[in-house]
Specification:
By secondary structure, the chain is an alpha+beta fold. It has three helices and seven strands, in the order αβββββββαα. The two termini are about 30 Å apart.
């Protein structure tokens, strides 16, 4: 297992649309293991392969609570099960230090494959539903900042670019 570097906004590679995983093999399982290690090291609850510059439809999620086991989502799709929307503060390992309210459907049905390639379905609400939608957005080249106003997104971009420049000169 290895900790991989996480791409940060505004890196254009985060806009790459991920390709389906044709077969779940040892290489995909190793990727999943690296993703969990990377996510835990960064203190996150979800990570899409796109965020580590691997453009395959793979996600790991661990809400780190008593109710939910860690999840592997390979080739995930979801459908909305309600018109009710939920607003929740979202953050992102690719947009470090920023948290903003985002409105998303409250209840979804996920279809995916697990670490062994076996298909499964689950219904999700609350934080799990938000996390699944957020990470699936990554696979489609979308970030949570895309739900914000142009002004807010530009301010976040400016601050992150400035922080990178300061970090590079330190």
């Amino acid at each position: 297992m290895a900790i991989r570097p996480i791409l940060e906004f505004p890196d254009t590679r985060l806009r790459t649309i991920a390709k389906p995983v044709p077969v779940v093999d040892a290489a995909i399982q190793a990727l999943v293991d690296d993703m969990f290690e990377t996510m835990y090291d960064a203190g996150g609850i979800g990570l899409a392969a796109t965020q580590i510059d691997v453009h395959l439809r793979v996600i790991v999620i661990d809400l780190q609570d008593e109710e939910h086991a860690p999840l592997v989502l390979i080739n995930p799709t979801f459908e909305t099960l309600t018109d009710t929307l939920d607003e929740m503060q979202e953050g992102c390992l690719s947009v470090p230090g920023f948290y903003e309210p985002v409105t998303r459907p409250e209840r979804i049905r996920l279809r995916a494959q697990d670490r062994d390639g076996s298909p499964y379905e689950l219904e999700a609400t609350g934080l799990l539903a938000v996390c699944i939608q957020h990470e699936c957005d990554h696979l489609n080249g979308k970030l949570f900042v895309d739900y914000l106003s142009n002004l807010k997104r530009a301010r976040i971009r400016t601050k992150l670019v400035k922080a990178k420049k300061v970090e590079a000169t330190s």
